[in-house]
Structure formats: structure tokens, C-alpha cells
Amino acid sequence: MTQDLSIVELDADDPAQVDAAFTLGNAAILADLPDFPPNCRYEHDVRVRVPLPGAQRHTFLAYRGAEPVGVAVLDLPDHDNLDKALLDVLVPKQHRRQGVGRALFRHAVDFGTARGRTSVMGFSVLTDEAGTPIGAAAPFAEALGLSNKLLDVRRRLDLSSADDAALDRMLAESWPKAAGYSTVQWGNTPPPELVEDLALLDSSFLEESPMGELDLEPEKVDAERLRSASAVRAQYGSRRYETGVIHDATGRVVAWTAIRVAKTIDWHAWQLITLVHPEHRGHRLGLITKLVNLSTLRAQEPSVRIVDTFNAEVNAHMIAINEAIGFRAVDRWANWQTSVS
Ligand SMILES: CC(C)(COP(=O)(O)OP(=O)(O)OC[C@H]1O[C@@H](n2cnc3c(N)ncnc32)[C@H](O)[C@@H]1OP(=O)(O)O)[C@@H](O)C(=O)NCCC(=O)NCCS
User: Fold this and answer.
1) What share of the chain is helix, strand, coil (3-state, %, to 5)?
2) Does the Cβ of 146 fall within 6 Å of ligand 1?
């Protein structure tokens, strides 16, 4: 079945290839996770030309004859993690178990090893909350020699049934523990005077997050990279809602959270990074930033009904905050990794 397969690197100037990558990726994801937000077409079309700073992106398409049957997206970090290759292989249901995934994996890994990468990583759903397997990523990854180094859980907040009075009460009860701190909010572009502090917090993210057995260096984020990432994301058309906490005595940013809404998916938002500087923990700053940010999201994006977020299964503090807000576990995800040469 695999003899007639051919694999090409996506040409951003070929509209049929750009379209195939979008259609195959969405079909593969939504087949296993019908509740998941689809990828945003607008963002996809820009991103094939303008990748996020910090990694080179290579997208490969598998064809059987003239028919596109699978896609692989390979990110090669270029600021840090220079030995890593981050890979996503996506094959729609009707083309599975015919060797397409394996061929794409081999092709992308060979491409990475030829460029000095010795460790390949992937992220995929494993089971629902009750432990029932979802999709085929686990047997696929295991067949290719990867193992799960860190378990993540996706949690979902349904804003249509959120208890507004309880959230307001929680925020009011939290502020007395946070005397001497105040919040600051922005959208796609961070205020210039905060960028240095935000880059420091961002760089500490992996250092501060539980990493299990995953071998991943903390990202090197400096002010310039943060500024250029914001500028690129703005081109993707997504809207960001961000809240920081300022330590009034020093004027430094000591906590930060972000939510993003894709341009064409109006019902869904991703709750992203939340960080509190280690020296400023214990003042409810994590809960406060998240609640303040969420309330801005709700005021600005009345059609957003669902917010999803990922946490490492062992990240007890962040999970406690999310559960208090009303996020509930939906499914479990694996961070796959193996050495390659
Ligand atoms: C995972 C996925 C990419 C597999 O694609 P595929 O084209 O079906 O994979 P292949 O046919 O090349 O399978 C390679 C091997 O993986 C294992 N495998 C794949 N699917 C399997 C399944 N449903 N049950 C058991 N083993 C399976 C088998 O060992 C298989 O070899 P074999 O067919 O010779 O027994 C595809 O199911 C998919 O797109 N899923 C959704 C996205 C995803 O989870 N991607 C992985 C992210 S890292």
C-alpha cells in the first residue's frame, strides 16, 4: 500500500497544497475529537508563509497518486532546543492503517536528523476522562518507538453555565490577600514598558512547570522575540486578552495570563500561559489574573461559550485554580518523545 505514496514539502504558493494541508489536518483532528475547535482557515493561510519566531516550520503532504492523504507538521526550534524536532502527523480516518502515518513520520524525522535533530516529540490525545482510548495516536506512537513522558489533562469551562455570582465572590474574596498588587490589561501587543519583565516570566515558564520525564530546555524568550511573536500573531488575526499583575512597590510584572480567540472560530477560546513569579506566590495572584482576564474576555467576546486549557496532570496548584473557576476535565493527552539518529 505504501509503494505508490509520494511525499512533498508544502509550497505556500500552491493554493491546492495549502488547501489540502488545512482540510486533512482538520479532518484528522475532528474525527477523533468532535468537540475540538477546528483550525482557523485565515490563520492557516498566513502561517504557511509566516511562522512564529522561535522555530522553522516545515509541512509535508503525502499523496496517493494525485490524492492528498495525510499531512505532517514539523517544527525545528532555532533559539533553544536545537536538538529537538516537534512533529504532528495527521491522517484522516478513511486513509488510516495504510502506512501513510508511518511514511510521513519517517520522512519528517529523516528531514530533522539531516539537520542535526536527535530528539523527536509529539503531543496527542490518549483517553477520555474515564480512561477510554481516543483515536490511534497511542498505538501509532508506540509502534514508532515513542513513549509518553508527561501526561496532560484538557479541562473545559462552559461559560453558558458559569456561576457569575460565585466568580464575582471569589474575586472579591481574593483581593484582600493581594494588597500591594494591581492588574494591568492589554490585547495583542504588550505595553512596551512591560516587555522585559514578561520575557523573563515567559522564559521561566518551562522551568516552573512540571515537566515529568520530558527532555525540553526552557525556551529562551527575550524582549525582541516576545515583541516579534506578538507582531506575527497579530497577522494571524487572532485576538488576545492578557492580564498582568504589577507589584506596586517595585513596579515589576510578577504574574501573567493570556487567552486567545482565533479569527474565524467565534465560539471558542484557549486559556494559555498563567505564571506567578515564585517570590510572589501565596497572594491569590494566579486566581485573580485568570478571573480578571476571563471577565474581559466575556465582555469583549459575547459569542465565546467554551474555554479549553491544558495542564500537566501533576500541576496541582494550577488545577486547583482552574477547578475553582469551573473548568472540568475532558480528556488526557500524552507528550511523546524518543531519541532518533
Ligand atoms: C495516529 C495517525 C497519524 C496514524 O496514521 P496511519 O496512517 O493510520 O498510521 P499507519 O498506517 O502508518 O500505522 C503505523 C503503525 O501504527 C500502529 N497503529 C496505527 N493505528 C493503529 C490502530 N488504530 N490500532 C492499533 N495500531 C495502530 C500500527 O502498529 C501501524 O502499523 P501496522 O498497520 O503495520 O500494524 C492517525 O490515526 C491520525 O491522524 N490520528 C489523529 C492525529 C494524531 O493523533 N496524530 C498523532 C500525533 S503525534
Assistant:
1) 35, 30, 30
2) no
Residue closest by Cα to atom 5 of ligand 1: 101
Q: Is 88 in the pocket of ligand 1 (CB under 6 A)?
A: yes
Output the nine-digit C-alpha cell for 157. Answer: 469551562
Give the model's pLDDT for residue 30. Answer: 97
335 phi, psi to nearest 5 deg: -100, 105
* C-alpha span between 241 and 232 (Å, rounded): 16
Q: Is the CB of 100 under 6 A from ligand 1?
A: yes
18 half-sphere exposure, CB direction, 13 A CA radius: 15
Residue with cell 504558493: 13
Query: Is the whole model's pTM more than 0.85, yes or no?
Result: yes
Q: What is the rounded (10 degree) CA torsion for 88, 89, 94, 95?
A: 170
* Alpha helices for the chain (secondary structure H): 15-32, 41-47, 100-113, 137-143, 164-174, 195-203, 205-208, 223-235, 285-300, 316-325
d(CA 78, CA 54): 6
Look at residue 2 and tell me whether its pLDDT is greater than 70.
no
Distance CA 178, CA 282 (A): 9
C-alpha 140 – ligand 1 centre gap (Å): 4
pLDDT tens track for 22-43: 999 999 999 999 999 999 999 9
Query: In the prediction, which pLDDT does 244 show?
Result: 97
Spell out the domains of the chain, with CATH numbers in brackets.
Answer: 5-117 (3.40.630.30), 156-332 (3.40.630.30)
